[in-house]
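Reopening this ticket.

The earlier resolution said the output was attached, but the attachment link was broken on my side. Pasting everything inline this time so it's all in one place.
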Amino acid sequence: MISIDAVSVDWMALLIGLVSGAVMSAVFFAGLAYGMRRALKAAHPVSVLILSAALRMVLLLGAGWIVVAWGGVWAFAGFALAFVILRFLAIRLDLFTPGSGATS
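Inline output:
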C-alpha cells in the first residue's frame, strides 16, 4: 500500500512536460493535416502518408525522449497528458469549413 506521503510531485518537470507536449502535439496534428491535404492531391498518396507518418512519429518520439531524459517521469506524465488532451481537442473541434470536402 502506498501512502500519500510517499509520492512527491515535481511540479516544474510536470509543467515542462505539459508545455513541450502541447507544442509537439500541435506540430504533430498540424503535420497530420498537412500530410492529408498533400496525399489527397498526390498521384501516389500512400507514399505521402507513409513519409508524413514517419516524420511525425520521429519528431514526437524524439522530443518525448529528450523531455523524459531531462525531466524524468513527471515530465513524461505531462508530455503524455498534453498529447492526450490535444488529441481530444483535435478530434472534437470541427476545423473544416463547409464545402471543403471533409465529412464529419
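Reporter confirms the inline version is readable. Helices lie at 11-41, 45-71, 73-92. DSSP finds three helices and no strands in the chain.
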